[in-house]
Amino acid sequence: xxGVLVDSILAADIIDFNLAALGRxxxxxxxEGLTYGSIYALVAVGYTLVYGxxxxxxxxxxxxxxxxxxxxxxxLWALGFxxxxxxxxxxxxxxxxxxxxxMIGGMAVSGATAVGxxxxxxxxxxxxxxxxxxxxxxxxxxxxxxxxxxxxVLPRLTGGTLGGVNAQQPIRLVxxxxxxxxxxxxxxxxxxxxxxxxxVLAFVTDRxxxxxxxxRGIRAVAQDPVTATLMGVxxxxxxxxxxxxxxxxxxxxxLLYTLRVxxxxxxxxxxxxxxxxxxxxxLGGIGNLRGALLGGLLLGxxxxxxxxxxxxxxxxxxxFVLLIVVLMFRPTGILGESLGRARA
Amino acid sequence: xxxxxxxxxxxxxxxxxxxSPPExxxxxGRAATKDRPHGGIGDRLRLWWDAQxxxxxxxxxxxxxxxxxxxxxxxxPVLTTxxxxxxxxxxxxxxxxxxxxxxxxxxxxxGLLDLGYVGFYAVGAYTVAILTSPDSPWNQTTPDxxxxxxxxxxxxxxxxxxxxxxxxxxxxxxxxxxRGDYLAIVTLGFGEIVRLLxxxxxxxxxxxxxxxxxxxxxxxxTEDLPNGVFSAGNASGTLNSGVWWYWVSLxxxxxxLLLVGNLERSRVGRAWVAIREDEDAxxxxxxxxxxxxxxxxxxxxxxxxxxxxxxxxxxxxxxxxNFNVINSVLFLCAVVLGGQxxxxxxxxxxFIIVYLPNFFLGRxxxxxxxxxxxxxxxxxxxxxxLALMVLMVFRPQGLIPVRQKxxxxxxxxxxxxxxxxxxxxxxxxxxTDGGDR
Lengths: 344, 437
Known about the structure:
Chain A is an all-alpha fold.
């Protein structure tokens, strides 16, 4: 960050600008970026909804996601799948069925964690009217507790099957296989499942927030909690619902993520993804549902371009620099904060 | 951001309509009302301290710091750590305390939530390492460089301070226009960017291998210790290198406490408090908010840089994994745990954060009760997280809270007002406690 460092970056060819590679693989990179982006988008929704309603960065949401990964893994285990080097071949229909069950398992664990977190950690603070920094610290504490739970306690409870220091051995249900090409970009079945599932979930969530009675309650509380309460909206129930939706989507994202990164199931696996998803939410305008979806996709695609132009090791740097640059020009994100009112 | 100890806090701070009189709302909980009238230990301590005369303050302050300085060499039975070198633990405590003081300026005083403070720590450490490590291409301790090994660390220190201040300026000037949570995530990103730069600029920073052989002060050279008391070779005995580094840290802690304390009592400090309490109001009242926020950032950053330089000198080795974002979070925890806005409180917070895990390390019994200390130490983050959560529920203002709204001259006014009010209240003790705001 010093002037010295900047000089060396410019002088030496530590970073090479490989624009030719970007041009060559543009569509393949876009597809790959959208894959990651849709996972970010699903996790980002959890951040953005909670922020919209409570003005709280739910720092522990990354751990909700992480527990979702373990939840779907345990579900697969319960269904009789074991880690092996090869992918199971069960046929399309059965695979989709099993993936669906695993996703529900992940959603259940994540949703329960998110709601439990709200009950145990945040509600007592709300009762006392704590300032927002206190919420943040509590979230950090909860994040430590959940991580260490998987790190130390879970292996004891499950006899070493789940959790611990190392990543779980992957259970592969789907072997990535190229299905067809778009503009010369190969699209695998995994990509199709991820983007397809994410699109469906995003659409359902959007409809739920914008067109149902419950969604109206959420928007009302986000806009003006006091008036919403006077109009008969139960604030506590809305808050619980918000956490539940965020948790469920994180659980779904957890399954999709493990399809793409089978070796990612580890106690510390949620952290970086959580930061990225939060960045995505801020990028799109935190508190804004569609902003989170857009921000997630954008972040995924941009960092994928960036890692080809600058090199793989700069991928995270690209994501954060993009965030800083966007916030400099649009301080409330691309779409602004619209779930609640805009803040001064 | 940090409107802690708000009287009658509404359930959702930003959404409370100002029209409703706070007295008419039922108190949110027992703790909120119970803690409100008094600022707690920190306040009482500060009032008592302020009432002392200057010579008395010096007369008590100097022995206090001396006492703190001799803690690692007294070998106090339970306090001294068993599994690790106590001097080393205290040195680490000194550095984290310094960081907590710096971060307290940013978070506690100016109310800017900084989640990337580890970035400044890293910049400070890497500046010293790049200038003095033999692994670095810009090593200046070679014969034709402009630093000598004997005073290389000391000469690199001001450079480190200057460069961290500059990095505070570079980070602050574009981002300080953001508010609250946006600032938090941008600073978090900054912390990660610094670490990733250290990891990826292999030719300059040694990448994941880190930089070895960072210079340190060559003081107290004897025959037994050819490299002086600060070298890692001075590992055993009462006066090991950790103790020496602890003393150096203490020196910097006292210097920065004096500096920060004076700033707090000046126009700058009042501007910070005003910004923290209500940025818009401060702006309207003519406080150049951006300028003072930038000041807070730069001062906080430079103190973090000092700490980083100390760290690099002590362990003589810097590696990117030591500058994870999780450390930023720990630093923030030290500040919040001790009581943000309270300089001595944050030092206590730093002590708890550093000392507690080390306390259990290698311990087989405590007061006769057998325990498996190593196992407890390995669970430290679990307990730590639980402790944070419990603390935030029961004591959200930290262990040694201060009444944040009243600083500097406002405090005297507050005390006077309390006295008058108490006198007025005595005939009618039945009045609610809502009136003492």
